[in-house]
Amino acid sequence: MKEFAYVRAGSVEEATSAYASHAGARYLGGGTNLVDLMKLGVETPAALIDVTRLPLDAVEELPDGGLRIGAMVRNSDLAAHPLVRDRYPALSQAVLAGASGQLRNAATTGGNLLQRTRCPYFQDLSKPCNKREPGSGCGARDGVHRDHAVLGHSAHCIATHPSDMAVALAALDGRVELYGPEGARRVAAADFHRLPGDRPEQDTEIRPGELVTGVVLPAASAGLPSAYRKARDRASYAFALASVAVVLRVADGVVGHAGLAFGALAHRPWRARRAEEALLGAAPTRAAFEHAVDLELSAARPLRDNAYKVPLARNLAVDVLSRLTDTALTRRAS
Amino acid sequence: MDTRSVRQYGPPGKVPDDMGNDQHHSETTLRVNGKPHTLTVDHRRVLLDLLREDLGLTGAKKGCDHGQCGACTVLVDGRRLNSCLLFAVALDGCDVTTVEGLAGDGEEPHPLQRAFLERDAFQCGYCTPGQICSAVGVLAEAAAGHPSHVTDPGAPSGQPVPLDRDEIRERLSGNLCRCGAYPRIAEAVEDVIP
Amino acid sequence: MTGSVGAPAERREGREKVSGTARYAAEYHVPGRAQAWPVPAAVARGRVTGVDTAAALTVPGVLAVLTHENAPRLREPDDATLAVLQDPRVPHRGWFVALVVAETLEAARAGAAAVRVAYDAEGHDVALTASHPGLYVPEEANAGAPGLREQGDPDGAFDSAAARVDVVYRVPPLHNHPMEPHASTARWEDGRLTVHTSSQGTNAVRAALAGLFGLPEERIVVTAEHVGGGFGSKGTPRPDVVLAAMAARQTGRPVTVSLPRRYLPAVVGHRAPTLHRLRLGADEDGHLSSLTHEVGTHTSRIKEFVEHAAVPARVMYAAPHRRTVHRVAALDVPSPSWMRAPGEAPGMYALESAMDELATELDMDPIELRVRNEPDVEPDSGLPFSSRHLVECLREGARRFGWAGRDPRPGTRREGPLLRGTGVAAATYPVMVGPSTAAARALPDGTYLVRVNATDIGTGARTVLAQVGADALGVPLERVRIEIGSSELPSAPLAGGSSGTASWGWAVHEACARLARRLAEHTGPLPEQGVEARADTTGTADAESERARHAFGAHFAEVAVDTVSGEVRVGRLLGVYAAGRVLNARTGRSQFVGGMTMGLGMALTEGSTMDAAFGDFTESDLASYHVPVHADVGEIEAHWLDEDDPWLNPMGSKGIGEIGIVGTAAAIGNAVHHATGVRFRELPLTPDRVLTGMLGARA
Hints:
The structure holds 3 protein chains of 3 kinds. Chain A has helices spanning 12-21, 34-40, 75-80, 82-87, 89-96, 101-106, 109-114, 139-142, 165-171, 189-192, 273-279, 286-297, 309-333, and strands at 5-8, 25-28, 47-50, 59-61, 67-70, 175-180, 183-188, 211-217, 226-232, 240-251, 254-263, 270-271. Chain A is an alpha+beta fold. By secondary structure, chain C is an alpha+beta fold. Chain C has 3 domains: 25-123 and 179-229 and 234-267, Aldehyde oxidase/xanthine dehydrogenase, molybdopterin binding domain (Aldehyde Oxidoreductase, domain 4); 142-174 and 271-431 and 546-698, Aldehyde Oxidoreductase, domain 4; 434-536, 2-Layer Sandwich (Aldehyde Oxidoreductase, domain 4). Chain C has 16 helices and 24 strands. The longest helix of chain C is centred in the C-terminal third of the chain and has 22 residues, at 500-521. At the A-B interface, strand 1, helix 2, helix 3, helix 4 and helix 5 of A face strand 4, helix 3 and helix 4 of B.
């Protein structure tokens, strides 16, 4: 790790101007991934702009009934917040399915979105990786890639995005708030992360110097029927092999709204638009779920050693869709 | 007076100010186990290394140095955290409790320490301080109504979460134990649940 | 006897461990201590053609960079993995090619990142296959086991058997990953070397350092007061201790080398992958006529280590025709070594899985099948057993587990998305014991001091040795103090091969018994320095036994397999052991349970992948190498039978550190078959494999 300058920012404006005045700066949130990557030499910032003390640590209801989650809200506080648990259960469940209690106590909402892939080739400076060092090649494609992407990968990169939380945000139609040299803007959570294409070094749509200031969720004062499910190699404290976040509203015997996103299948949380379209207006039957999910996953291009992800993701999605339907039916009956 | 608190080797080739500060070093004050320490730290220094190398508090262990094992768990402002991932400079003004400080000033060990002894909830002992600090955090989090991955999604939010065996196991899963003392650790935590 | 032995005495060092004051090797704050960070090779095979240290040396705080060009010359070691920084050869990826010594950890790490190494890379071969042309039958596998044993006509007997099983299994490379990374602190003073190291035995470390540095052993002190686990990987000296001593000599400063976790998989050993082929032939009643166990494995280019996985088939079952053979290929891979129950753990996974398959083939209860094949003498050697209570373990386990009435049909217990099943497997582990010395002293204040260079890697050695001493002296436990963990103490063998307590305890028992006799003859007050007796069990402990001596056990597992995700959860594990006398019920139970937990990891979560393209293990950290976590471990019970075996040692113990892992993976695998109806023959049973297997079976 190279030596670096340290600046503690007291306001968002102070943070962005400090960033602008320090070449090679990075924002420091909870540090659970950045410090890790600095120790590995993958990240070599010349300066850290500490944003952990910015007044962005609140979860607040908006006048329109939506929810605003400050970028500095720690993952554990986000998952425990009554408004999040009651109205957006998939988000709380997704956060709790990730990492460990200690890491969730440190990790921030903004940092969770900006964490980098855990691809072993990305983390190892002695190996080629187009994401870490554009043009150096991809070690994983012919190497060990059981955990890698089956959707949307490119010749340059087959990495997956590791976040659980971001998958739920994508399914929930969350929006990411950014503030930067050109002012404030919002980007749909489902579009915030990119596919690798020929620029795998660019994980997200964030622009230089921009800071994630928060996440906004759409109004759901009655609570959004939603859930998150993840499969992993051990019962806890492991990244997903595949995961799914589902929002499902059934009205008058048909699907009125469906939000479906997969995790660990692609370079970004994979919003399953084709499946959602197929579900809309359909009767909520297992056959309809299977049909819709298969439609989505027909785009999958598994690699040598990760074909299992397709049936795994299919099973998880159909299971969660079915369970949400059962819950909805039970709730209406009671 | 704590004579160890300012033991450091100044990096050659830099011109520090009177306090030893330059663009890569800053004065930082932490309360550790109730005692204030003011040090000029290399910005790269993480809390774990500050505790172990600067303060001689080696109770927090370095098992992986990357937040993947939990052996370095300490309490910062009452929350359990992996001290290997926290730059000390960013903790200026924080209150840190390590395994050495759990018992307070008295001779008597903390009830969790006692329970670990009685249950033989460790073997090599290397993960033990982290397990104990983590368990302290778990008890506080459950009391504060923090759910876990295994909490029934239908459980009322904002209410304390009862800690059954599955809850304890899930919540302590950030603390690896290669000796396999897990069942005993869960029993020890159960012993101290009020 | 005062009855200390067997009692659940509390760990003597427990308070230090729970309060954080127990000191491990990297925690010695010697004044002026420097820190060091190694640089691993980035090619799998080749030569270092140049090391550019200029940039590293300008990093503030860096004191020195050691390379093969400037490091102190070492004498040639017996163990080639210790010849670090001696020549430009790179035998495998991750081999250390430089070491940066600096004032602080941060500077050492930054310095290491700044070292530029140029290589002349050669093509490498790291892929083990069953038909690898480099496979050969070694004269000896690990632990001195013959590479090949054959009796009768196993092929003919197999061909003519009524029931046959011919199956292959694969156990991947596995890593010990003790929680404390390998670390050493070394300092030189007046030509004397003092080392604090994380090792399972400091006499061996001292001997290795004496050889490497050409010093008499009297000028070297090696201590290992507390050791954060080892599981075999600290059973031999590792590069950290050599590097620390070299760096301390080069810089004139005390130096700590604490190996980064990511570097461990390449330099501190691993359980080599094993490819098994089992052929079992039996008559209609299940009596084995033929047993062939063939094992293929790898070793490195610099050290022949052969995982002796076919050896338990020489011990377990009566079969007149048998072949057990190991084949090894030397590849451009890191050197494998001991990991908890080397040989037995992978070997019994394969053998006990195959026995389960045979039971299914015969439509016979798997416990009954094992009972029918219980031998009268050790099958391979023909020696009578000193004691063998495998059948009793199986029966007692079946009773406690509730095996009776089990529906043997696989794939039929469905609860929603879950399929439930139960499985059983046997376990065995040899009794090993080595010569040791010990001293016992009676002091005028009425206390006793026992000294022996035992090492406590978490087993509770201090506690159990004090118990042994107290009983031999006939005094209460609290009157006996114990000193272990330093080469200044009477020499003793390592904590390994489940032999530590037997070896050290034998010498402690002898010394204390001798002291008791001396005290009985003594009249009047004791002199100020007390009265001492010493013991050396050379020639006794290591004498050839007329009996085949092994511990046995039975493992039972209950699993739930999620048909949606392929995730397997072990709800219950139960082990019953016949391991002689258990000397401390509390710490003994912890060892059994610990072994079973590691066996659960072997079954479900653990595995390292040799990256054919790059020549290293992909899972290099604890995020990707999945040691089981709390949530993976359900109810675990360990029980034992009282065994009175006069052929062991004065305490009557067999060793308990390893047998807990031995049958666990097979019991879980057999339970997964019982649950799903699908036979999985490659570990670990991760969701990708299990789901794919279940879907394949359905198709």
